[in-house]
Structure formats: C-alpha cells, structure tokens
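As a representative case, the lines below give one protein's residues and fold tokens.
***
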Amino acid sequence: MSNIRHKIQGLTRDIGFPVRRLLPAAAARTVGPFVFFDHMGPVEFDAGTTEGDVRPHPHIGLATVTYLFSGAMMHRDSLGVVQRITPGAVNWMAAGRGIVHSERVPEDIREQKVPVHGLQMWVALPAGEEDGAPLFHHYPAEQMPVVEVGGAKLHVLAGSAFGASSPVATASPTLYVAGSAEKGAELEIPADVAERAVYVVKGDVSLDGEPLEAGTLAILEPGAAVALKAGSDAVFMLLGGEPLDGPRFVWWNFVATSKDKIEAAKTAWNARDKSMFPDIPGETEWIPLPVH
C-alpha cells in the first residue's frame, strides 16, 4: 500500500513571471498550517526594468514565508522594515489584522544576471491570532541548524526535525525543512508530525520506492514512516505540521476564518484605509483589488 495520499503537479501561473502553484489544489487545500505554496523560477530579470517586482499589496490572517535557493529579493513593508532576502535565510512576516509589503529584485541581481529561484509559502495564523498586530522577523541562513543524515543535508527552517530545532518563532506547530541529497542518499521521514508533504525542487527521488519527479508535491499518509531515496542529486522540501484549527477562506492575498473578514479587507484596500493597511515608507505604487 502506498504511503502517498496525493501527488500534485501544480499549475503554472503568471504573476509578472511564471510560478508553479502547488497549494491550494483540488486534491489538497492545506498541509498542516500551509495554505499556499508557489515555486518561482529560476528566472533571470533584465537590468533597468521592473520585471519580477511585486508591487505593494495587502495581507491579513497569514504569515508569509520566503525562502530562496539563488538570487535575492528586497522586502519592504508597512512596519518600516527593509530587508534583503538571500539564499538560505528565512523571512517570516505575520500579517495579523493587516500589513502591506512589496518584494523587488535588487538591481545588482539584474545586472549580474543571477537567477532568482525560491519558494513563497503562506501559513494560516491560528484563529486567536488572525486579528493580532502584524510583525516581521528575519533569520539569516547561518542561524538555521543543519543536520546530515544518510547522505542528505537538512536545513531545519521551522519546527523540530531530525534532532534539531529551528529558531523561527511560529504561531502553531509547523514543520519546514530544506534538503539536498546526493544520488543514492537514503532518509527516513518519521511519522512524528500529523500532516506531511515532500516537494521535489530539483532532481528525482522515490518515496518507499515510488518515483517522484521534479515539480511534484507528494502528500503523505499520516502515521507511517516513509523512506526517501535520491535517484539523482536532488533538492527537496519537507513541510507540514498540525492541522488547522478550522477551515479557512482564501481570496487573493487574504486568509481568514470568515467571509466577513475577507469582505472587510477588500473594502479597506479599495478605500486605501490606512488604519488597516498603512503605506510602505518610500513606496508609491500599489496593486489594485482584482475584479473577480
């Protein structure tokens, strides 16, 4: 019997550059607290352009988690934070009742033609924290614990895994690990987390002998350890955690426990209500509310 519940290939979306969207999907809306998963790049951007820039936009009820394999992004938000995101680091921004941020490609990355390649995740905040104050935390790559198991190198980005614990402060039990493995490396994924998934970024791996190619998100059955083996040099992610404390509504950049909260956020963004969505210092652009 297979320990893979679902295989998700994702859909390619154009957000100014192509991304592969894995969550939400028809087969699975969430994995633990993760409600959104985009794989962006690798893609090069031309110097002197704004290609790849994500202009100021709002969020409620979630935490954004940005992780890069190459390139860099410049984060700015309505708290006044300006932070360059570099490979291996973790940016954790909790929107709470409302935040605005932008992510732009630095000019040196454009000029040097460095590919931008990474993942953007959203984690739904617990119901008791979705109306809390927004916050931002940056964790440099050197703060992430690294564990080597069976030929695999594992960076523990959130939660505890393989005997190591991340310094990232999460709002609910969360698992997030970046792994790289040489061909032939073997790793057992324990069943100590309620909901788990494996995403193959590059190369190919097998789970209990069942092959997974790059770009595949495998949702695992709960309660069973799973053997991962690298069929080639590979990069993969392990994500999951405890199930959400109830259903979530997701519309555009908003995540909430009720449709009323979504509607209130839509009205506030349309009205440019600065009590909910303050301006970002130094930014003058903004992304209008979608019409759909």
Observations:
- The domain at 4-241 is CATH 2.60.120.10 (Jelly Rolls).
- The longest strand covers residues 34-43.
